[in-house]
Amino acid sequence: MPDASLDPNTLRLTRILDATRERVFDAWVDRDQFIQWMCPPGVTITLMEIDVREGGAWRVGGRNESGRVFASSGKYVEVKRPERLVFTWAHHADGDYANPRGHETTVRIELRALGDKTELTLIHGAFVDGYTQHKAGWEGSFDKLVAFLGRTA
């Protein structure tokens, strides 16, 4: 994979989490855990479906505080427990799964063990638009993930 840090249209975020990488991986692949932290504050999830296996699909839908609806979906490309998840991502026009998907990006999650902590690196892109919104969304989601892992430790 090319170095995404050289592409200005690819988002790269890193967080150190106070949980083992197995625990962090579970937060990504268990629907009941994922729904508790996925999407930034102020977003209500109304649909969450995940089939975490290579070739499996995922869908998430909801609305933000202003009432704007969204629908996103993709497929899992790689599932390597507990170190890596790779999946595609695209929004559906007008927040409706019946509508076509927009530009597809790839999300790569890398989990590196640091003793009883985990370094989570997200690489998401390449974007043609929406970089800033996705950056804010992932940062808000990761803040919720930190809180979730602290509550369920």
Q: What does this entry look like structurally?
A:
The chain is α+β, with helices and mostly antiparallel strands and 153 residues long. The protein has a single domain (9-151), classed as START domain (Alpha-D-Glucose-1,6-Bisphosphate, Chain A, domain 4). Helix content is 24%, strand content 39%. A hairpin with a 6-residue loop joins strand 2 (44-50) and strand 3. The termini are far apart.
Number of domains: 1
Strand content: 35-45%
Structural class: alpha+beta
- Report the count of strand segments: 7
Parts with pLDDT < 50 across at least 5 consecutive residues: none
CA radius of gyration: 15 Å
User: Could you give the order of strands across the largest sheet?
Assistant: 1-7-6-5-4-3-2
According to CATH, the fold-level topology is Alpha-D-Glucose-1,6-Bisphosphate, Chain A, domain 4
Helix content: 10-25%
**Biggest sheet details:** 7 strands, antiparallel
User: Count of DSSP helices?
Assistant: 3
Order of helices and strands: EHHEEEEEEH
How would you state the average pLDDT, rounded? 94
| Fourth-tier CATH superfamily name | START domain
**Would you state the CATH class?**
Alpha Beta
CATH architecture: 2-Layer Sandwich
Outline:
globular
Sum this structure up briefly.
The chain has three helices and seven strands. The protein has helices spanning 21-29, 31-37, 131-151; strands at 11-17, 44-50, 57-63, 69-80, 84-91, 105-114, 117-125. The mean pLDDT is 94.
